[in-house]
Write a structure and sequence with these properties.
The chain has helices at 2-12, 18-59, 69-87, 132-148, 216-222, and strands spanning 65-66, 94-100, 118-127, 152-157, 166-173, 181-189, 194-200, 204-205. It is α+β, with helices and mostly antiparallel strands and 230 residues long.
Amino acid sequence: MNDARDLAHSAGSPGPTGDEVGGAGGGVLRGVGIGCGVLVAVPVLLVLGFLVTYSVQRGTPEEYERVDPQAMMTRIGDVSRESYEVLGFETAAGSDASAGLCYPGGLESMADEPVDGAYSLSHRWSVDDVPESGAASALKRLHGHLGDGGWDIDSYESDAGAAYGLELRVSRDGPSDDGGDIRAVFEWRDHRGRFEGGVHAPCAYDPGAGRGTWSATDAGAEVEPPRLRP
């Protein structure tokens, strides 16, 4: 009897209404819709943020110094002279100047376009017939001198018989936040017996360059490199 009454009661009990069923289904659909909207909105916002950042960087000029190429050559030439004196070689060094284009960093670099009117100048020199022992002792002196003078020692390979020869790389902050560091490289290679030095200036604007004239390749030909003598 109890089982019969239970079955009858169950049969007579109202089930969930259409509104209740629809409400549950609608909530699921609304949740799916919101989730899809978020998935679509996030990439769109990322793309918009990228485009805005790229436009701002493209519209902001690089904060390079404005320096005449010959004045810049004098600066890095002084570093070469000082280093050459400390190295103590007994022969004159052959030297030359070269220049390259400057490219912006950040998102702007994607355009692969050089900075208008900017150049990057280098001074390189070399001495032939330097024995390994002489190169090692010369680099040791220069390492101590530049380190005491505030240069950052980026790398120093002084071991005799090293696979790639002897090498000293140094740098120090440039005069502008955006122009990079002043870098210098000194190296000796066993297979040539040649000691080479190079000082590389940070990027700068050429005051004599007009807009739309990427004069970097001309800057190296227009300057007079210093003569290095014992």
